[in-house]
């Protein structure tokens, strides 16, 4: 089975109203749709651009993102339905009760919306923004197979992708937001590690540009990439395609899932098959939550891991 994926290197800049955000998002979706893509990935914290909307010239606080949740969902869901694509709408900060969560959203062509809260939070997210970590890992079943959304810092923890692969995910979408090359390389190098350990694809992208009035979003260093296992059927450097660093652009690539199945059984190394459960636990059997397309919904997070 093959699927075509696109990833957006989203250019953050100051805007005056929500319509300007909607126009920019729509431009990227239309660009990817011209290549007949099936999945479009936006970066983490893409909606922080909305915090630059201000009459005073001062950026809004992170808590105000929750005010845009309905408009955000309506925009991305409408585009997914109109263009018949799955859109991983980056992440958006939502409020549930009195808590804020950094949540990746999967918008389906049939109008359903899936959510995956970020599980590991950076010090800035916790201390400066008061965000609460999620408590469950979810796998989403699509006509093109099972996928997972593992956001930025989460990809640096090998246990999560082990669990996702154990539940059948072949493609990991990893929206990210990093402010310098150090942070970018942490995400990039660990993404490569996850593809080697689990023999999966990782599709990743990050924000670029700057929001001068929004705290902790003044610097962005990003590059989209489709990362593969390092074995003979794939590119030698494990990169199927990548963007130009810090350029406003969209990349597109075809993923051949049959190659994953081939290397898991007959590759130069068979890392997934050769795990030593006599030495360590089988994380692939951890209890997670699989959500078929017809059951996607916005739900409270439950403790599962």
Please provide the count of β strands: 15
Number of helices: 6
Which geometry do the CA atoms define? globular
How much of the polypeptide forms β-strand, as a percent range? 25-35%
In sequence order, what are the helices and strands, one letter per element?
EEHEHEEEHEEHEHEEEEEHE
Task: Give the strand order of the largest sheet, numbering strands 1, 2, ... along the chain.
Answer: 13-12-10-9-8-7-15
* Structural class by helix and strand composition: alpha/beta
The main sheet comes to: 7 strands, mixed
Radius of gyration: 18 Å
Helical fraction equals 10-25%
Averaged pLDDT = 94
> Which segments are poorly predicted (pLDDT under 50) over 5 or more consecutive residues?
296-305
InterPro entries: C-N_Hydrolase (IPR003010), C-N_Hydrolase_sf (IPR036526), UPF0012_CS (IPR001110)
Keywords: Hydrolase
GO molecular function: hydrolase activity
Family: Belongs to the carbon-nitrogen hydrolase superfamily. NIT1/NIT2 family.
């Amino acid at each position: 089975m093959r699927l075509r994926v696109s990833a957006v290197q989203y250019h953050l800049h100051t805007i005056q109203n929500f319509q300007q955000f909607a126009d920019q998002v729509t431009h990227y979706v239309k660009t990817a749709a011209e290549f007949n893509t099936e999945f479009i990935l936006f970066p983490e914290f893409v909606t922080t651009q909305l915090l630059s909307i201000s009459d005073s010239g001062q950026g809004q606080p992170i808590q105000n993102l929750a005010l845009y949740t309905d408009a955000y969902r309506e925009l991305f869901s409408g585009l997914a339905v109109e263009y018949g694509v799955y859109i991983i709408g980056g992440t958006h900060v939502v409020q549930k009760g009195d808590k804020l969560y950094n949540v990746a959203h999967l918008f389906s062509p049939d109008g359903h919306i899936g959510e995956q809260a970020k599980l590991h939070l950076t010090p800035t997210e916790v201390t400066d923004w008061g965000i609460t970590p999620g408590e469950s890992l979810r796998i989403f079943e699509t006509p093109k197979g099972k996928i997972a959304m593992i956001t930025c810092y989460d990809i640096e923890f090998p246990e999560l992708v082990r669990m996702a692969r154990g539940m059948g995910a072949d493609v990991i979408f990893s929206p990210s937001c990093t402010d310098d090359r150090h942070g970018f390389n942490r995400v990039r190098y660990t993404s490569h590690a996850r593809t080697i350990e689990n023999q999966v694809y990782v599709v990743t992208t990050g924000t670029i540009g700057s929001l001068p009035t929004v705290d902790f979003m003044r610097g962005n260093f990003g590059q989209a990439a489709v990362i593969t296992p390092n074995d003979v059927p794939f590119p030698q450097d494990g990169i199927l395609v990548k963007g130009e660093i810090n350029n406003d652009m969209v990349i597109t690539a075809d993923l051949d899932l049959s190659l994953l199945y081939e290397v898991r059984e007959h590759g130069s190394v068979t890392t997934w098959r050769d795990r030593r459960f006599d030495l360590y636990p089988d994380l692939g059997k951890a209890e997670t939550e699989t959500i078929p397309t017809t059951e996607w919904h916005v739900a409270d997070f439950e403790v599962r891991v």
